[in-house]
Design goal:
The chain is 33% helix and 24% strand. The protein contains 9 helices and 13 strands. The strands form 3 sheets. It has a 7-stranded mixed sheet with strand order 8-7-6-9-10-13-12, with helices on both faces. It has a 4-stranded antiparallel sheet with strand order 2-3-4-11, with no helix packed on it. The chain starts with a strand and ends with a strand.
Length: 302
Amino acid sequence: MNFEHVNCDLCGADNYDLLFEGRDRLHGLPGTFPVVQCRECGLVYLNPRPDESSMADFYPEEYSPFASDRGVVGYLRTVLRRREAAGIAGSLLPGARVLEVGCAAGELLTALRDRGLEVTGLEPSLHAAEKAHREYGLDVYRGTVFDAPFPGKMFDAVVLRHVIEHFPSPRAALEKIRTWLKPGGFLHISTPNFDSLNRRLFKEFWHDLDVPRHQVVFSVSTLQRQLNDCGFQINSVRFEIAPNDWVGSTRNMLHSLHPDFSLYRFFNLKNPVALGMFLPLTLLQKCLRIGGRMQIVAMKIE
């Protein structure tokens, strides 16, 4: 594995504090990854980080966004995707063109299509892109933001659902995406919230830290600055109901402290009982605006 040193993507400074050394707790792949915070602007990011040629190893075919859940968890996941689609479609006219960047297996795109929207996907994983086309009949371009062939001012909305944190340079990605949006077009972003209660309690065991896949972790304030710098104006900030963040974080902590203690197996992301235990807490977080995952709607400004 090769590493590269990077400056802060938000302000360009090379002045940071080491917060902790993270590990791949999702797939258990080898390596430790320094999580740092910029002293100038507060952005949190990996530094040094695996270079582009090394990152593909951390997205195996069993990576959870590529999978299809069944049973109660699968049903709940479908309900949530439909709910998200309704929120996105609410500000668009029927037939509006929507691009989802990092569409994975296409569950959200399918729900958006069912709402009468014209949808396109962009997905770097060949496995996920083929699954989206095979199972849902979706038009998915296999590639990255930087090699996609879309013309300028093509889309009424672009969706980045838990994707912006994966970009090596969110700034460069947002500048490219902005060119694809029509004037006044909407950008929908879902991403972990570094200022959340979850992160403060669990620290390096926080499920949504997910290094090294998550290369940048925003707070509301750092994401707002990033969007403003790239020609967007925030319209709304909300927080997701995400009990799986609590379940995964608890599992990470228990497994690290007592790897032979079988209780950690109960805190499984596919266990509806464990998810239900934390549902009231995540509902409260949403109301208090301290949730672990935030949803930002921004508009392209000229």
